[in-house]
Amino acid sequence: MSYLPKPVLVIGGGIAGIQAALDLADQGIQVYLVEKTPSIGGKMMQLDKTFPTLDCSACILTPKMVAVARHPNIKLLTYSEVIEVTGSAGNFNVKILKKPRYVDEEKCIGCGICFNKCPSKVPDEFNLGMSQRRAIYVPFPQAVPLKATIDKEHCIYFTKQRCRVCEKVCPTKAINYEQKPETIELNVASIVVATGYQLIDPTLAAQYGYGKYQNVYISLEFERLLSSTGPTGGEIVRRSDNKHPKNIAFIQCVCSRDVKINPNCSAFCCMASVKHSILAKEHLPNVDCTIFYMDLRAFGKGYQEFYNRAMREFGVKFMRGKPAKIEEEPETKNLIITYEDTFTGLKKTMTFDMVVLAVGVKPIYPEALKLPLSEDGYVQLKNQYLDPVLTMIDGVYTVGVAAGAKDIPDSVVQSGNAAIKASILAGGAQK
Amino acid sequence: MSEELRIGVYVCHCGTNIAGVVNVKDVVEYAKTLPNVVVAKEYVFMCSAPGQQIIKEDIKNFKLNRVVVAACSPSLHEPTFRTATAEGGLNPYLFEMANIREHCSWVHPDEKEVATTKAKLLVKMAVAKASLLEPLSEIKFKVNNTALIIGGGVSGLAAARDLAARGIKTYLIDRSPTLGGRAARLGKLTYTEMKGIDVFKGLIRDVAGNRLIDVYTNTELVSVDGSVGNFKVKLVKNPRYVDAKCNLCGECAKVCPVEVPDEFEFGMSKRKAIYLPFKDAYPRIYVIDMKSCTRCLECVKVCPVGAINLNEKPSELTINVGGIIVAAGYDPYEPKTGEYGYKLSNKVITLFQLERLLDSEGPTKGELIVNGVKPKNIVFVMCVGSLSTTPDAYPYCSRMCCSSTIKNALVLREKYPDTNIYIAYKDVRTYGRGDEQLYMKAGENFVRFAKFKDAPKINIDQKGNLSVTLFEETLQEEITIPTDLVVLVVGMTPPRDIDKVRTTIKIGCGPEGFLREAHLKLRPVETATDGVYLAGAVTGPKNIIESIASGSAAASRTLALLSKEEVAVEPLIAVVNEDICSGCAICVAMCPYGAISLKIIDKNIRVAKVDSALCKGCGTCAAACPSGAMQQYGFKDAQIKAQVIAAMGEV
Amino acid sequence: MKEFRPRIVVFACNWCTYAALDLAGTSRMKYPTNFLVVKEMCSGRVDPQYVLEAFRRGADGVIVAGCHPGDCHYIEGNYKTLRRMTLLKKLLEEFGIEKERFRLEWISASEADRFVEVANEMYEKIKNLGPLKIEIEGGR
Ligand SMILES: Cc1cc2nc3c(=O)[nH]c(=O)nc-3n(C[C@H](O)[C@H](O)[C@H](O)COP(=O)(O)OP(=O)(O)OC[C@H]3O[C@@H](n4cnc5c(N)ncnc54)[C@H](O)[C@@H]3O)c2cc1C
Ligand SMILES: Cc1cc2nc3c(=O)[nH]c(=O)nc-3n(C[C@H](O)[C@H](O)[C@H](O)COP(=O)(O)OP(=O)(O)OC[C@H]3O[C@@H](n4cnc5c(N)ncnc54)[C@H](O)[C@@H]3O)c2cc1C
Ligand code: SF4
Ligand code: SF4
Ligand code: SF4
Ligand code: SF4
Ligand code: FES
User: Fold this and answer.
1) Cβ A304–B540 below 8 Å, yes or no?
2) Residues of chain B whose pLDDT is less than 50?
3) What tens digit of pLDDT does each residue of C46-74 get?
4) Neighbouring-strand partners of residue B481
């Protein structure tokens, strides 16, 4: 075949962006993968295990991350953001801002000496603030690239002009406080948007008291509690007293399927909670798990079977209905859930040691692209049947949760779909 | 081997997956005592970049010449560690893995001590084998950059369209007389004005007449030989009895005396023995259904272009392709007679039949007429054949039916505002974009919902009146809904005879018969067999959008293979030690691929010879060889026996 | 005396039985700890000599397992296995090795539960039989 392929830009380095980049690169296309945080991996990296096979998330994701770093056709731009896009399909001009890490990526070997010595402690966003990291840090041990980054806002040198400890200890002299932002200009044939999602602010569902009651968690926090690399080393313990809970309630559709906050279904939280209940039982065999749900959306391959196992093998209780409110018992910090028994229509209460809210999601988009959105808040598609990943802008494709809430397998399928579409433009369509 | 052995052993914690059960420290200490082990280490995630870095550095620092990693299953990470070994400067085949997760910590969570002992034994076995490993290099083959797609539904069409757009020559086969599959029969779709047929037309626009796509209908797979990059595929093209001269005048069908139920309309109307499967069928050629044809020859007489030949015979053809996509789709669940009153009353129909009735091009031109009357009360019964707790139907969720049901309920509501519509359901799983909004809209539009746990009963009284009885979960009481029409929302099942395709290509399936992905989450369109990919509903229920997306994704993976000049395959093939081969030829007969022949090396001395392009590395020949001359790389007698011996004894 | 814990060698083909054993792991099924797997690409690679070697070295039981007939990744390797192992069974009987100690099984990649069943059954039986009392050629 004789064509001169043009490069493709992939924005967002979660599983969706990673897979799109790998597919394209394997097809011989040059890919720029832009990720705004210091490492690729996205939300999947924060998960402990994944339904329905309970593979450990890091175990299956890290090889892909390493493959990205290693692929000769992929240029990885982390800690970078797209700031301007002009042009049209086949010929986009893109400006990318590479933020300063204040660490020379060429020199840093990821040895970790600096972050052991750095005196400034900061809540760790990877563990949703449940533990601390330093002002110079790598977000998690398997980060790709494994390069330190200085968080300027919390660095004592940048805020108070003293310290410079990391500079002293770094064995490779990688620290550079003078590093400047860089702008990179690219010309690409097509763009794949894989910028993923954020959890909706759980305090919007004020009746559940997140942030007010210590033992109310959101699902992603629970995921970190389960993880051996999490803040508790894989122990499920309560924020209030560090004790194992004897019973846990999971509440579905928090900030989802709720006309006031967000009418969309988040598609994976039912299964995530089923998974959480099974994993909780594995960690604490005597814990009682109850899931409050409206419909249990176990629709994917092997999902109903997984749900059946939760019920039959693990004895997880499923209660239909959305709880009206949660109150805290001030002494014990236990949580009283008020719900309507859909069978009798009567209001009832139940007390739990811990409550996990399966909170809904909303997409994130790169502002520079100005993608037209639909009523549901997700990106508008030109023809979702004939070209399921094409946005209203020709040559710009969208995948993963940015294209609608979905689980990992469906994200990966979409990535393949967008990859071949982007590749057709890059390779020059042939007839 | 003269070189001194220097083995490095790395034991992974896998977070707590391994370390939570197996005492990793103990295993490391034990490994250090094994012969030739010069270094043994542990790490939280060996597969991570820093984990791999440890291996690479140790190879240099300790001058290792063998690497053993005790971690998860080699099916997951053998490639990862092979690459790391190679990047460390060692031949990648000097690496061996001990599976202490899937085969140990995960299956023995309550027996920490014995699990640790077992892990030690597994490490001992791997070290024993590693000691005997030899450097090997991958075998490279030229890739034939053409593709075969089996199944011309929406997923197969999308795959063909996309491959051709990147210049890949593609064969698209379908066993039925037309492309289009099931989606072509669906009426209006959600969130669009398009109907199923419009999606088909949209796809066929790029496929019909595309010089890079060869379409073969009425065609089935006979055999597949070869391997990734170079498959030799035999197909049989069953006769259509009408050739491309057909100009669609339809004179033949007018005169044909045989009328049979039209399968496109699920038997709700009739067609002739010579027919066009549906108005927009592709290829645009009539076809004769020989099972019902009486060979009266009326059609032959009237055909103005002489396109009909009743004596056409099946023909075989052989093609060579580099990659294969299986897109054989699904079959709708067919309720048994009497199941929910099916076939006992013609007022019990399936959702697919309803789709046809509501289609303006369907048997009733889009009017809901059943038994000559317009039903006023309609009950949909969901999950027919799906979410079953008994073995006579399927346990899984068919995924697309909830939103398809609600879509149909809304179409009915708009068209016939005064009908009463009930949806009897287990769970409403409207997970997709926009589907939840439709669900809410249905509620606002007085579509009524009744939740059941145990399958509803359909009652048919003597006069033929219908009603549905179920135990309503929210009300906690049994209710009976009299109705004029029951629509059974049938799920999706693996397509008939998929096992034939599956065993011909040698790919796996799950317990219900849907084809199995290489990895459910991260390799959803690949199979365990290199060069074979999956698209659409053949891996499990999907709606049209998801099927098309997976067709394109399969094309993407196929393109990744076919855009390469060469593929490398594992060198784990048979090898003859000519010095001891007696030329008995026992192995020659053993090989299922005809890879072994005898060659004359010196006057009358004949020895076996393996063709490395044909050998697939099963090792059957080696097991049969009486003199031990035939061996298999990576699985030599000595290597296997060393493992067996290492499995014994105390640790 | 120490409790008798039979040691059993499993020759598993890469495509079916090895995958089934992996599946048993990912599904967190449980079975006795005493099964040690030797992987082959196909059950057809298993030379009856290996089975004898295992018993000679002290194995209390051996399983040879592969894909179901018709499902072998290499078309018909397992038919050859069937033939070889049928002969081997006779030989083992002659040596006086109880038939419970050797099994030929067809276990597909999705039949993790089948492996668990076989493993439990075999473990119990061999436990009742006690250690292998026979010495084959050359001894242990
Ligand atoms: C609690 C919980 C449990 C879950 N469990 C499972 C499970 O078990 N199985 C399963 O299949 N799914 C599960 N999911 C769903 C899963 O997380 C998603 O399907 C998956 O992570 C989606 O990946 P993504 O790449 O689309 O998005 P993300 O993972 O969000 O990745 C997006 C990436 O883009 C980057 N980015 C964002 N904006 C920009 C920008 N402007 N420029 C550059 N980069 C940008 C982000 O930093 C991020 O790295 C779970 C979700 C939650 C919340
Ligand atoms: C009752 C019902 C209602 C539905 N409603 C909707 C809806 O409203 N919206 C929606 O999006 N989806 C709906 N669907 C799902 C939709 O039909 C599927 O998503 C779609 O048809 C799948 O496409 P496919 O290409 O994978 O398979 P198919 O459409 O089944 O195509 C497979 C093709 O492969 C061919 N084939 C099979 N075996 C072989 C073989 N051995 N050799 C050669 N060729 C072979 C077949 O002849 C067929 O042409 C519905 C399904 C059902 C059952
Ligand atoms: S910046 Fe220096 S000290 Fe910090 S991780 Fe990198 S090399 Fe180590
Ligand atoms: S997936 Fe389940 S919990 Fe999440 S919004 Fe949808 S129905 Fe609610
Ligand atoms: S020969 Fe067959 S197809 Fe032709 S008219 Fe007669 S019955 Fe119909
Ligand atoms: S290993 Fe032997 S029997 Fe098997 S394919 Fe190769 S040559 Fe043929
Ligand atoms: S590959 Fe499993 S028995 Fe041959």
Assistant:
1) no
2) 1
3) 999 999 999 999 999 999 999 988 778 88
4) B468
C3 — contact with chain A (CB < 8 Å)?
A: no
Length of chain A: 431
CA-based nearest residue in chain C for residue A55: C26
Is it the case that residue A1 has pLDDT exceeding 80? Answer: no
Kindly list the distances between the CA atom of residue C4 and the CA atoms of A294, B40, C119, C140, in Å, as whole numbers in the listed order. 53, 31, 16, 17
What is the residue with the minimal CA distance to atom 6 of ligand 6? B615
Task: Say whether A282 and C26 touch across the interface (CB within 8 A).
Answer: no
Note whether A281 and A210 are same-domain residues.
yes
* Residue A430: pLDDT over 70: no
Same domain, yes or no: A70 and A118: no
Say yes or no for a CB contact (<8 Å) between A385 and B555: no
Q: Residue B166 and residue A300: Cβ atoms within 8 Å?
A: no
Report the CATH number of the B146-237+314-330+497-562 domain: 3.50.50.60
Q: Is the CB of C46 under 6 A from ligand 7?
A: no
Q: Does B332-493 carry CATH code 3.40.50.10750?
A: no
Nearest chain B residue to C75, by CA:
B592
Domains of chain C: 8-111 (3.40.50)
Domain count, chain A: 3
Chain B contact set for A305 (CB, 8 A):
395-396
Q: Indicate if ligand 1 lies below 6 Å from the C-beta of A194.
A: yes
Q: Is A1 inside a domain boundary?
A: no
- Pick the closest to residue C25 from B71, A298, A274, A225 (CA basis): B71
The verdict on the CB of residue B196 being under 6 Å from ligand 2 is no
Residue A202 has pLDDT above 70, yes or no: yes
| A417: chain B residues, CB-CB within 8 Å | 548-550, 552-553, 556
Q: Is A130 in the pocket of ligand 3 (CB under 6 A)?
A: no
Q: Which of A55, A123, A301 is nearest to B512 (CA)?
A: A301
Instruction: Say yes or no: A330 and A349 in one domain.
Output: yes
B566-569 and B139-142 beta bridge pairing: antiparallel
pLDDT at B478: 95
pLDDT interval class at A142 (50, 70, 90): confident
Domain B574-632 in CATH 3.40.50.970? The answer is no
A146/B397 CB distance under 8 A: no
CATH 3.50.50.60 range(s) for chain B read 146-237+314-330+497-562, 332-493
Output phi, psi for C22, to 5 deg. Answer: -65, -45
C57 vs B73, B125, B648: nearest CB: B648
| Chain A positions in Cβ-Cβ contact with residue C110 (cut-off 8 Å) | none
Do A160 and A16 share a structural domain?
Answer: no
What's the CATH number where A254 sits? 3.50.50.60
CATH fold of B239-313 reads Alpha-Beta Plaits (3.30.70)
Report which DSSP code applies to B49: H
Q: Is B113 helix (H, G, I), strand (E, B) or coil?
A: helix
Ligand 5 atom closest to Cα of B241? 3
Does the Cβ of A366 fall within 6 Å of ligand 1?
Answer: yes
SS3 B458: strand
Cβ contacts of C69 on chain B, cutoff 8 Å: none
Residue nearest to atom 2 of ligand 5 (CA): B293
> In this complex, is the C-beta atom of C28 within 8 Å of any C-beta atom belonging to chain A?
yes
CA angle B276, B279, B283 (to 5 degrees): 60
Closest residue to B75, CB basis, from C22, C40, C53: C22
Same domain, A204 and A293: yes
**CATH code that applies to domain B7-138:** 3.40.50
Residues A191 and A60 in one domain: yes
